[in-house]
Design brief:
This protein is an alpha/beta fold and 335 residues long. The chain is built from nine helices and 16 strands. The chain has one domain (32-333): Aldolase class I (TIM Barrel), CATH 3.20.20.70. It has helices spanning 3-17, 48-57, 98-112, 128-139, 167-180, 196-205, 245-261, 277-285, 303-317, and strands spanning 26-28, 31-33, 37-39, 61-63, 80-82, 87-89, 119-123, 145-149, 185-188, 210-213, 217-220, 223-224, 229-230, 237-240, 267-271, 290-293. Strands 3-4-7-8-9-10-15-16 form an eight-stranded parallel barrel, surrounded by seven helices. Strands 5-6-14-11 form a four-stranded antiparallel sheet, with no helix packed on it. Strand 7 (119-123), helix 4 and strand 8 (145-149) form a beta-alpha-beta unit. The longest helix is centred in the last third of the chain and has 17 residues, at 245-261.
């Protein structure tokens, strides 16, 4: 489909959405999203064709692949395998580096401006200092938000641990990024910790505008039983997809409950195994403002329109005019 025709189709859809009936638009950190769905980081590459397809598919926001200061090749194939109940992956954070990513984000913003689809730039680094440098560089592209991936096993030279496994270190990264960013900052947390709510409170107190939870679970191991070898070239990898959704929902519940109890207004992007409208509704019921969709995209981009259509049906049945009317409704009903 030509880009010009796509502009027309999206404009028509936006007018229809703005009419009578439930309204799906949400505001995250002061940024308007046409609906709560967000493409999770690392799922699709950056190109005009990909962004056009995502806009046509009805995505509410797009998170880029995580970028580093320098280009990174990542692990050799196979890097992603469907193991039946979800995906296991060890991509190795492959990316072209921040200089290339800045130009790609600039091009993407121009393309997506008529659709009102925000861009979330994802970054990762090997040291706390480098997170600040990256935030400053990627800010040159003027993304709508910056997502800080502290939940991959990149080792800090001093602490020698995953950044998000330590509340103090997570807070330090948050402060450094906030000092160097020119837009709201989202901290992406790992479920592979003893108390994810404590980490969330730490980054919120350090100035995080929002929290994304969760990253993949693991590492996990899947074998080819004929060869007795791992299915991934790297051996082990992060586990994602429907199998981890109950864990993701519990983590988002814990985070949102802790934030509310502490009187903090930090918002949350609920991510992890979301495949259907029911899954997205579940995330919103435990307090998520937006819902990240990742592994489900491998089945097709139609997942975004399926989820938003299901949201409208649910809201119509319950007489909800906006998403905020049922956000967090389950928090008072869960022990």
């Amino acid at each position: 489909m030509a880009v010009a025709q796509l502009h027309a189709d999206v404009h028509t859809n936006a007018v229809t959405a703005a009419g009578s009936g439930p309204q799906l638009a949400v505001t995250l950190c002061g940024v308007r999203f046409p609906n709560p769905t967000v493409l999770a980081s690392g799922i699709l590459g950056l190109s005009e064709q990909v962004f056009a397809r995502l806009a046509q598919a009805g995505v509410g926001g797009i998170t880029t692949k995580s970028c580093s200061l320098k280009p990174r090749a990542g692990w050799p194939n196979p890097t992603i395998v469907n193991w039946g109940e979800g995906l296991i992956n060890a991509i190795g954070l492959s990316n072209p580096g921040v200089e290339v990513m800045v130009e790609e984000i600039r091009a993407a913003k121009k393309l997506l401006a008529p659709y009102g689809v925000p861009i979330v730039a994802s970054i990762f680094a090997n040291t706390i200092y480098d997170f600040g440098v990256l935030a400053r560089y990627v800010s040159e592209a003027e993304p709508d938000l910056i997502e800080v991936n502290i939940s991959c096993p990149n080792l800090d030279a001093q602490h020698e641990e995953m950044f998000s496994s330590n509340a103090y270190v997570s807070a330090q990264v948050t402060r450094v990024v906030k000092r160097n960013a020119n837009c709201p900052v989202v901290m992406k947390l790992s479920p592979n910790v003893e108390d994810i709510a404590a980490i969330a409170i730490s980054v919120a107190n350090a100035g995080a505008d929002a929290i994304c939870a969760i990253n993949s679970l693991g590492p996990g191991l899947v074998l080819d039983i004929e060869t007795a070898r791992p299915v991934l070239a790297n051996g082990t990898g992060g586990v994602s997809g429907p199998a981890i959704r109950p864990i993701a929902v519990r983590c988002v519940r814990d985070i949102c409950q802790a934030l509310r109890n502490a009187g903090l207004k930090t918002q949350v992007i609920g991510t992890g195994g979301v495949t259907t409208a029911r899954d997205a509704i579940e995330m919103i019921l435990v307090g998520a403002t937006c819902v990240g969709i990742g592994s489900a995209v491998y089945r097709g981009l139609g997942v975004f329109s399926e989820v938003t259509s299901g949201l409208v049906d649910y809201m119509t049945r319950h007489d909800y005019e906006g998403v905020e009317q049922f956000r967090g409704r389950a928090l008072d009903r869960i022990k």
